[in-house]
């Protein structure tokens, strides 16, 4: 359409001017050689204004380099399409100009670079706006602080933001292609699938669900599912997920604590209630409702002072107001006479929206306290010792009298068993065992026991011990009351000793009566019988002589019995003050054997004496002599007729601090079963054909016992007899201190 | 007159005296004296078989080895056989009332006498057997 004769130059001019295309011609340096008239409606310049100026100068400095490179490029290329660049309009605005430059330097009629420009400001700005809004939404997706992801309509992951891996630990790559149900806890699959489908149906909404991390950890999330509309249909869903595990946990915790608190308050046996700032009940526990005989439901929301106008101006009323204004808790007691005598102890606490009140009746406690005070006065002031122990018998408290009676202070006995400190060597172990048994049986009992004071002094205590049982029947305490019975006990022991002495005395008196009755009377009876017989017999007959001689025998028998009696009586009376001395056993033994020498030689008796020449006993020498004499004489008297007599005397010390003297023979012996009860009795004889009167062994036993010793006998018929005498070798103490 | 009288007493003189008094009073045809109760017991038990038992026994209580009480106890198994045939009189020097009471517990014991034996006592016994 270059040249046509049919079109005038004006024609071209008009077209160019009204075209939206701006045509200009530049030289190689960019200077305008021609500017089409359409420049004016586009940029506001008159065409001539631009002629001779350089196009680069109008271009935005950010775009200038780009324009210059296009100018360079056009020298070697036919045509260059340039991206839009900013060109300064006459009014100073920047206009976006899209430009195509064509190299027409070789064209004779042009000789320049033709630029076809178009104002694309509107398009560029639209584009930019679009780009900007896209980036806004991208930020909403990628930079959202919650995990955001996209699922396609089949429920597979398409995209996820950078928070997403932090939530469930799957990386963006790992998650792509997974189905959402793979991440949801099985118990929530149904619910979540439903929500997903609801979103696909076009409804955005929010649900809570439990999901699993890559490691299988359960986390609570809150998800908002938003359908993605594209051209009227849903192309997928956006999901915004937030970890609410902590939130849930604290929520649960708060709920649990609230429940717990509620049950605590409910379970308090004492009345409890809460009032708001308007004095209306906001909480009433069971006990309070029961206390007032009302239902909780009918009380809640009611004003306490309106419900109970009689309480207005009570101490309680003022204290409640005090707490409400001061914000500090108070406790106080207020006595009531109606509906019954009571002392109510109130505790009023401030709370964020009012006050809480807790109260109980303490009238019984008051009474108990007063009683306890009195009891404690009794326990601490009594002259008896009082011990209170725990259930295991460990001391919890003792009174002053305990300290006075035992010498031990409270601190010294605390947490100890009293017996540990008080019992000693002479304390009767049977009594101790009895006490233990009674304590274990948990029954009240009394005992008398020998204890020791701290200074070692002996003291007799009469103890009354009472177990205190708890509601389950277990012993929680023992209370022991001790009184000093030492004086009583001492006189009791003295009485006992006296009774025992009397009993011995009585026994010997009985024995004496028996002796008189049997032994003294026998010769008397004989004598009197013979004397009565005598006149009836012919004086010249042999019988008369025989009776007369028997009368003489009887009288001399009587005489010897009276002599024995004298010996025995003097022995018995003398026992009380018998002086003991050191006696050499070996020497006494030798003396006795010598005195019996005549019989020993005549009968060919062998004496075997095995007595240490140093052996010394505490004894009466005369008694010891008599004992040896009688026993040796007996051995000789009751020897076996068919064999030579052997008498052995042995002596040894045993571990009980005694000297054991054994005198044994091989004589005729005795049947122990027959004689053992009678052997040492006065005028008991066991052999018919000898001269014994039945005094010797009685004397031996009496004398051994006078020296605080004892005697035993063992015998076998026709084998021999063995006497064992035990004497203490240090008898002084026990003898004189009886 | 009684056939046979036993006297049991460890005291020789007493034995002699009792026999002498019984002879004087002519209470029995035959007198047997025992110093040892066991011997008398043996004779009685043997005599049971041949109907040769004493009609009367004078028994001392206080004797060695076998006392009068032991003797009485040993006779207990024969009480039924001896009753009606044999009477026992305790003859003791004791004046103990308790012993007299104790003796009443034995069916064979018919009397309790104190030494020395007196004429009158023997005559009373004789009356009894007339």
Automatic annotation (TrEMBL), chain A:
Kinase recorded as keyword: yes
Catalytic activity: ATP + protein L-histidine = ADP + protein N-phospho-L-histidine
Matching SMART domains: HATPase_c (SM00387), HisKA (SM00388), PAC (SM00086), PAS (SM00091)
CDD domains referenced in this protein's UniProt entry, alphabetically: PAS
InterPro entries: HATPase_C_sf (IPR036890), HATPase_dom (IPR003594), His_kinase_dom (IPR005467), HisK_dim/P_dom (IPR003661), HisK_dim/P_sf (IPR036097), PAC (IPR001610), PAS (IPR000014), PAS-assoc_C (IPR000700)
Domain Histidine kinase: residue ranges: 515-731
Ranges where the PAC domain occurs: 76-132, 445-497
Residue span(s) of domain PAS: 8-78, 133-203, 257-303, 371-416
Keyword entries, A-Z: Kinase, Phosphoprotein, Transferase
Xref: SUPFAM superfamilies: ATPase domain of HSP90 chaperone/DNA topoisomerase II/histidine kinase, Homodimeric domain of signal transducing histidine kinase, PYP-like sensor domain (PAS domain)
EC number, UniProt record: 2.7.13.3
A Pfam family per the record: PAS_4
Matches recorded under NCBIfam families: sensory_box
Alphabetized PANTHER family for the sequence: PAC DOMAIN-CONTAINING PROTEIN (PTHR43304:SF1), PHYTOCHROME-LIKE PROTEIN CPH1 (PTHR43304)
Protein known as: histidine kinase
Annotated organism of origin: Pontibacter silvestris
TrEMBL record, chain B:
SMART domains per UniProt: REC
4-aspartylphosphate PTM positions: 60
Ranges of residues in domain Response regulatory: 4-130
Pfam families: Response_reg (PF00072)
Assigned keywords, A-Z: Phosphoprotein
UniProt-listed CDD domains: REC
Top-level taxonomic group: Bacteria
Gene3D superfamilies membership: 3.40.50.2300
PANTHER family (alphabetical): RESPONSE REGULATOR RCP1, RESPONSE REGULATOR RCP1-RELATED
Protein name in UniProt: Response regulator
């Amino acid at each position: 359409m270059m040249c046509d004769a049919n079109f005038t130059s004006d024609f071209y001019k008009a077209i160019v001017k009204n075209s939206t295309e701006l045509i200009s011609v530049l030289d190689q340096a960019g200077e305008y050689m021609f500017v089409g008239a359409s420049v004016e409606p586009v940029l506001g310049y008159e065409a001539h204004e631009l002629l001779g100026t350089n196009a680069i100068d109008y271009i935005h400095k950010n775009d200038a380099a780009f324009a210059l490179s296009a100018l360079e490029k056009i020298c070697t290329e036919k045509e260059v399409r340039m991206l839009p660049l900013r060109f300064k309009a006459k009014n100073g605005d920047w206009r976006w100009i899209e430009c195509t430059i064509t190299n027409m330097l070789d064209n004779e009629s042009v000789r320049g670079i033709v630029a076809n420009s178009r104002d694309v400001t509107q398009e560029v700005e639209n584009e930019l706006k679009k780009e900007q809004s896209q980036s806004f939404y991208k930020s909403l997706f990628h930079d959202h602080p919650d995990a955001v992801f996209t699922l396609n309509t089949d429920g597979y992951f398409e995209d996820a933001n950078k928070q997403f891996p932090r939530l469930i630990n799957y990386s963006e790559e790992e998650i792509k292609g997974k189905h959402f149900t793979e991440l949801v806890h099985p118990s929530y699959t149904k619910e979540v699938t439903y929500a997903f489908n609801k979103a696909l149906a076009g409804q955005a909404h929010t649900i809570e669900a439990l999901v699993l991390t890559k490691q299988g950890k359960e986390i609570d999330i809150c998800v908002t599912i938003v359908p993605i509309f594209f051209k009227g249909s849903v192309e997928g869903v956006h999901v915004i997920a937030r970890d609410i595990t902590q939130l849930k946990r604290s929520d649960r915790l708060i709920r649990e604590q609230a429940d717990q608190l509620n049950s605590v308050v409910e379970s308090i046996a004492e009345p409890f209630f809460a009032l708001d700032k308007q004095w209306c009940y906001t909480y009433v526990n069971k006990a309070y409702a029961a206390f007032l005989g009302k239902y909780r439901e009918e009380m809640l929301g009611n004003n306490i002072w309106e419900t109970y106008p009689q309480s207005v101006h009570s101490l309680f009323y003022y204290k409640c107001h005090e707490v409400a204004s001061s914000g500090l808790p108070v406790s106080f007691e207020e006595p009531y006479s109606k509906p019954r005598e009571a002392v109510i102890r109130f505790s009023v606490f401030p709370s964020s929206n009012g006050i809480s009140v807790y109260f109980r009746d303490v009238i019984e406690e008051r009474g108990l306290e007063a009683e306890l005070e009195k009891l404690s006065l009794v326990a601490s002031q009594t002259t008896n010792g009082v011990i209170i122990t725990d259930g295991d018998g460990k001391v919890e408290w003792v009174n002053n009298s305990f300290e006075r009676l035992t010498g031990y202070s409270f601190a010294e006995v605390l947490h100890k068993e009293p017996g540990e400190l008080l019992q000693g060597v002479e304390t009767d172990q049977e009594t101790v065992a009895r006490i233990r048994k009674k304590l274990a049986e948990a029954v009240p009992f009394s005992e008398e026991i020998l204890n020791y004071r701290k200074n070692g002094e002996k003291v007799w205590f009469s103890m009354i011990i009472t177990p205190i049982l708890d509601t389950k029947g277990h012993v929680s305490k023992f209370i022991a009351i001790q009184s000093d019975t030492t004086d009583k006990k001492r006189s009791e022991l003295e009485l006992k000793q006296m009774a025992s002495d009397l009993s011995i005395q009585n026994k010997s008196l009985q024995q004496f009566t028996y002796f008189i009755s049997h032994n003294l009377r026998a010769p008397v009876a004989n004598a009197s019988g013979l004397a009565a017989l005598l006149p009836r017999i012919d004086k010249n007959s042999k019988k008369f002589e025989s009776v007369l001689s028997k009368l003489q025998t009887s009288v001399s028998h009587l005489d010897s019995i009276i002599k024995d009696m004298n010996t025995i009586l003097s022995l018995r009376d003398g026992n009380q003050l018998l002086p003991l001395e050191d006696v050499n056993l070996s020497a006494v033994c030798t003396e006795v054997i010598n005195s019996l020498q005549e019989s020993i030689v005549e009968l060919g008796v062998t004496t075997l004496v095995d007595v240490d020449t140093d052996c010394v006993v505490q004894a009466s020498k005369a008694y010891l002599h008599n004992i040896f004499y009688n026993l040796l004489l007996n051995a000789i008297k009751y020897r076996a007729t068919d064999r030579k007599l052997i008498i052995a005397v042995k002596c040894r010390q045993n571990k009980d601090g005694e000297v054991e003297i054994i005198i044994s023979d091989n004589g005729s012996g005795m049947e122990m079963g027959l004689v053992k009860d009678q052997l040492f009795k006065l005028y008991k004889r066991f052999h018919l054909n000898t001269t014994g009167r039945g005094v010797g062994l009685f004397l031996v036993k009496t004398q051994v016992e006078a020296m605080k010793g004892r005697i035993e006998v063992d015998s076998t018929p026709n084998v021999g007899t063995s006497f064992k005498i035990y004497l203490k070798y240090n008898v002084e103490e026990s003898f004189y201190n009886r | 007159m009684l056939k046979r009288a036993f006297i049991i007493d460890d005291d020789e003189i007493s034995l002699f005296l009792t026999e002498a008094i019984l002879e004087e009073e002519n209470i029995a045809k035959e007198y047997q004296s025992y110093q040892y109760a066991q011997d008398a017991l043996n004779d009685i038990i043997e005599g049971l078989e041949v109907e040769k038992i004493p009609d009367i026994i004078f028994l001392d209580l206080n004797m060695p080895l076998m006392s009068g009480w032991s003797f009485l106890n040993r006779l207990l198994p024969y009480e039924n056989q001896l009753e009606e045939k044999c009477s026992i009189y305790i003859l003791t020097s004791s004046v103990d009332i308790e012993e007299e009471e104790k003796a009443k517990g034995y069916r064979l014991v018919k009397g309790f006498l104190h030494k020395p034996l007196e004429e009158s006592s023997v005559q009373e016994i004789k009356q009894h057997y007339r």
